[in-house]
Amino acid sequence: MSGSGRSGNNRKNRHRFSGRKDEAQKHDKKDNENLFTEGKFEKTRQSADRLLWAAPVLPANPITTPNCPWCGKQITDITTAISDKVTGLPVHFDCVLAKITAEWENFKQTSPAEEAEGNDSVCYIGGGRFGVVHYNNPSDTGSFTIKKVFEWEIRDISNEWRRPISEYFSIT
Known about the structure:
The chain is an alpha+beta fold.
């Protein structure tokens, strides 16, 4: 650092070099006063005029938590439930997954053409469908093939028990 102080930002210390201490202080004070009167800070004033956010009103239909017709336990998280194939009532996702897995195991034992491989698993593949997925490398789950698809839910049929749930999710 040089001793003269003429390099860099020496705006606050102008009185040292010019000998006009009073004028420098007036100039700095004038800049501070004009900060809020200039147009660049106009947005902060207008933000007070903006409407405040109001929380959305919840729908009148309460979300019910029915019992699973297969296991008899209460479905605590209705958003993860899936429709029963026959009745259309909500069923635990895990109950459906266990049933499809058991069906697949029985099918593998009765069908001699089907190869029993350790890299197969039953997974939800979306759209109300489950599938038997074969992993080429079990440590790399990104590379797989779908061997069989189980259509569980029909896409065209909407169930009444899902209507209150959709009202809650489409609030915001």
